User: Fold these one by one.
Assistant:
Number 1:
Amino acid sequence: MALIIPTITLASGITVENACLVITQLNTNNTTSLTQTLDDENQVQEIPGGQHTCAYQVGIFASEQAVKDKLPPIDLLRDGRTIRVFQLNLSDPAYQDLTPRQAAYQHLQAQEGLSNSTAVEDVEA
């Protein structure tokens, strides 16, 4: 899967038309925790917790064909000069029935400036 965006301006100031955005790094983390405390009656109270999170980075490819031809990305999605690392909570009901990669693409498409992108299913990256 990938996203095609009509135009995007790179950190260098160059504008690329029909660029292909691909998640180039994806990291999931699933933790559980258990906190035990004594209540007012000196009874042990257990409070379970944990998180199921996902962090990812996005590569910008010159085109969909560049991904298919296994060319490297021309840049990474950035905030100014800093590479953007997106994070989401996979426990969110919006991502319940999705794989981490599918959830990341859904999250990415909802970001400011990327809502006009189009999902492309047949791109293998």
Number 2:
Amino acid sequence: MTTTARERVAAFWDTHVAAWLDGADPLPHPLPAWFDSYLGIGLGQVTRDGFPEPFQGDLSGLTHTPRMVVLGLNPGEYRPRFQSRDGIFAAEIRAAGSYSRWMTTGPYNRPPWTDTMGPNRYYQTRLRFTRNWLQDPDAGHGDLLIFECYPWHSKSITAPLRPPPEIIEQFVWQPIAELPVRDVFAFGKPWNDVAAALGLPPTGALGAGGTPYGSTVPSRAVRTYGLPSRQRLVVEWHSGSAGPPSAKETALLRNALSSAECERPGLLNAPAPRAATAAAHASIGFLP
């Protein structure tokens, strides 16, 4: 019996991906509203030829409790050799027994992906940021949990992402609330628009367009938002890249975020993991 938001979300996606691997293409409630919340065209057109990838990492804490949470936009380009029903990853998921258990293995940071596609720069930069932020050079894929704003594949993003806030609350914010993290990170300006669309309250502005904090990159902007759990969403972007900051810039950001100047007094306190409650998980009713 599942008892936490993390377990509920993992079980939902395990069931969904298993049905997809068996040849179905289900969109149970509330997935139709989520699927329809992005209307990409051209290179941004969405495909369901590959399995959805709503998260990367050990969501349920099967082998390790994540210490870093990063938000992505979507899983990126569909690669049939790996992500189709008869692809390499489909066979691995079947062998692992579930999508969530397979995701504990860091599939995009090991062979056969790296043998065929080379190092995954997106994942590597976020793992490097994890090590820099935690000040732990030994942090590994078990420490990093990535949630996608939109779990289906497209080669690029060519339209606004407008996920229903109540879906993000149950599928993203509630699981994150159970983790021992204060800050949740998103890199790239599009996430600033997503945060606004979700109605998150702004709590601070650093760098470009805000309070200077010592960054040597003139275009670097940092915006912070309050999450329902009283954790903090940190959105960072700068010209020419949607990736995380360097080690030196990460240290500057850590120091700035530790000061009271980048948040409204009393809004955020370092949180303990939010306990699972029946009321919290039944408040919207998407998950069993």
Number 3:
Amino acid sequence: MADHRKTWGREARKALLGWTSWVVGCFLAMLASDLISEGPERITTAYLIARPVVFGAGWFGGVLVIRWWARRATDDPDGADDGGS
């Protein structure tokens, strides 16, 4: 029998897609605002490495929260199985 708690449900996939879109949108908006306000000389190699790493860590933290939320939503509301007693 398959353990269904390990699969991503529809709500969790929607939340993951929304979270990913939001993080990518913020990253691109910040990149564009830096290009417009400070010019291309602001976009250095360190910038191009550090920003995606920081945003990637934030994205991964959000994925962990979404997985926790999805598992919590699929848990038995009556608690753990007590063997039928």
Number 4:
Amino acid sequence: MSDWSLRKKEKRTKRKKEKDNVSKWSIFDFLINVTDIIIWPIRFVFWILRGIGRAIGNLFDGI
């Protein structure tokens, strides 16, 4: 092989190794963010309903 093709091959393999490493972390971050996006609205609704329930309960305790 010529020097040019060896250098090109080195660059390609180096870039490929770096790319794979980044993509693994990107997938991990994506999975964490997706679960946060799915769970957050459920928690939000739960806390809103709990607050409304407590307010109504306090209203009836005062009567």
